[in-house]
Amino acid sequence: MATMPDETVSVPPTVTSNNISPSQQTSRINGATIISIPTASADAIASFIWGSYLKTTGAHGAPVSFFSHAPLQDMWGQLTPGMKVEVINTDCSHGLNDPKEKIFWFAYIVRVEGYLALLRYEGCDDDSSMDFWCNLCNKDVHCVGWCGQHGIKLAPPRSIEHRQTDWKTFLVNKLVGAKTLPDSFRQKIQSSLRCPFKKNMLVEVIDKFRVSHMRVGKISEVIGGRLRINYENSAGEHFWVHYASELIHPVGWSHVTGHEIEATQEYKTEAIKMVETNSYPANIATPDLFRQVPKLSIDDEQFKEGQKLEAVDPLEMSRICPATIGKVLKNGYFMLSIDGSSAEDGSDWFCYHSSSRLIFPINFCKMNNISLSPPLGYQGEFEWEKYLHETNSVCAPSELFQINKENTINPFSVGMKIEAVDMMAPHLVCVATVAQIADNLIRVHFDGWSDDFEQWIDCQSTNIYPIGWCELVGYKLEPPKQPEQENTESTKRSSKKSSSRKSNKRKRPN
Ligand code: MLZ
């Protein structure tokens, strides 16, 4: 992980002496121990409050530094307990002349969990009763000195106002020399949220109804680096995906790779022209914007058709299964089929790159003490040696796998809370917990949902985020399923164990 120079700043003596006014006399706005201050559009937030949930569950959020694709990942480690901020004061009356006027007060970080911090107002000392959770990217959190620079009033919370007679001297003692957020913190947030993909750009995207095929898609929305892609020539069907996902590619990729694509002849002709001339109109997302895969040299040994391996079932991600290389494409890509489950027409063959971290050499599960799901209908105990013999096949050489080429450090621990995309309904970002760790994988449990919904994903997946990410980017976070939802059709369907993968499988409904 890259480390950045410590850019946090110390508070100069002048900032504590200005614009501090006593709070005014109206009713207490928020007397609750835990409050949450919304960042983005109110609709996108509200229903779920991480702070209360962490308290109830006694859990911790995975640190922002674990997520290389997360905004501000490289500097978040500098935000540590004790650091001082200026934050909206929720225990005071608003300005007398302007009821909308916001009053601020000093606070310090007690604890950091993902993008959230437990804050304590200066002056509370050992009293934790007013501690509150706040997203540090919230627009009402600033470095010490900000209110002074912007002529914003500071006033102590009403409940503690009486505790000091000389607040100015108290603050000078508390704040001078203390660490605060970097001056340019807000600009850093803004620039970390920039995404190179824009609305109306065309891409090639996996067909969620027939995963062996790509389709042409047009970006209709971009939120936090996630793209809502509308399938061209469809009745409003769409697919949500992160811009660095392996499920989207530039125009012309299918042609170059030899992947099946459903598109008009006109599109195919144009795409070939663009690839050959390497010139793309403005509405086309250019190849440099996409996730880059390692280039293979012609001399490198490659995966070959018929070889067996273990893979996370892309359509039922709670399972790791024996699988077979179906067809080798160009540039290190190939189609993979899950043994015993493949649709007769090959419509569920799934494209992987040789550098994928969701494919494994045989006995990966055994070595990591996790269960391998034998091919559906397989009789007897599954043993690779026997199976290779029975199927008259060979396994893929273990040195070809990315997980053996690099030494990945999986930083996650079981029990850590995250926000995770439900890969079978990728428009949903849900409250989730790391349930299990195996090598580079984490098994994501969706809080409140049965184990059938769990998904194995790579620890560097762009489909998991630190807690508070949804609030930061303004995306709706799906709260844990409540017990009263237990009888919904969805629950009944998903918990019904079936011997047939087809009926057990959750389709990508999005
Ligand atoms: N009702 C849909 C979505 C369930 C979403 C669960 N997310 C953890 C289904 O049953 O597939």
TrEMBL record:
<feature type="region of interest" description="Disordered">
    <location>
        <begin position="1"/>
        <end position="25"/>
    </location>
</feature>
<feature type="repeat" description="MBT">
    <location>
        <begin position="48"/>
        <end position="157"/>
    </location>
</feature>
<feature type="compositionally biased region" description="Basic residues">
    <location>
        <begin position="493"/>
        <end position="510"/>
    </location>
</feature>
<dbReference type="Pfam" id="PF02820">
    <property type="entry name" value="MBT"/>
</dbReference>
<feature type="repeat" description="MBT">
    <location>
        <begin position="269"/>
        <end position="375"/>
    </location>
</feature>
<dbReference type="GO" id="GO:0005634">
    <property type="term" value="C:nucleus"/>
</dbReference>
<feature type="region of interest" description="Disordered">
    <location>
        <begin position="479"/>
        <end position="510"/>
    </location>
</feature>
<dbReference type="InterPro" id="IPR050548">
    <property type="entry name" value="PcG_chromatin_remod_factors"/>
</dbReference>
<dbReference type="GO" id="GO:0045892">
    <property type="term" value="P:negative regulation of DNA-templated transcription"/>
</dbReference>
<feature type="repeat" description="MBT">
    <location>
        <begin position="165"/>
        <end position="264"/>
    </location>
</feature>
<keyword id="KW-0677">Repeat</keyword>
<feature type="repeat" description="MBT">
    <location>
        <begin position="382"/>
        <end position="480"/>
    </location>
</feature>
<dbReference type="GO" id="GO:0042393">
    <property type="term" value="F:histone binding"/>
</dbReference>
<dbReference type="InterPro" id="IPR004092">
    <property type="entry name" value="Mbt"/>
</dbReference>
<feature type="compositionally biased region" description="Basic and acidic residues">
    <location>
        <begin position="479"/>
        <end position="492"/>
    </location>
</feature>
<feature type="compositionally biased region" description="Polar residues">
    <location>
        <begin position="11"/>
        <end position="25"/>
    </location>
</feature>
<dbReference type="GO" id="GO:0003682">
    <property type="term" value="F:chromatin binding"/>
</dbReference>
<protein>
    <submittedName>
        <fullName>Uncharacterized protein</fullName>
    </submittedName>
</protein>
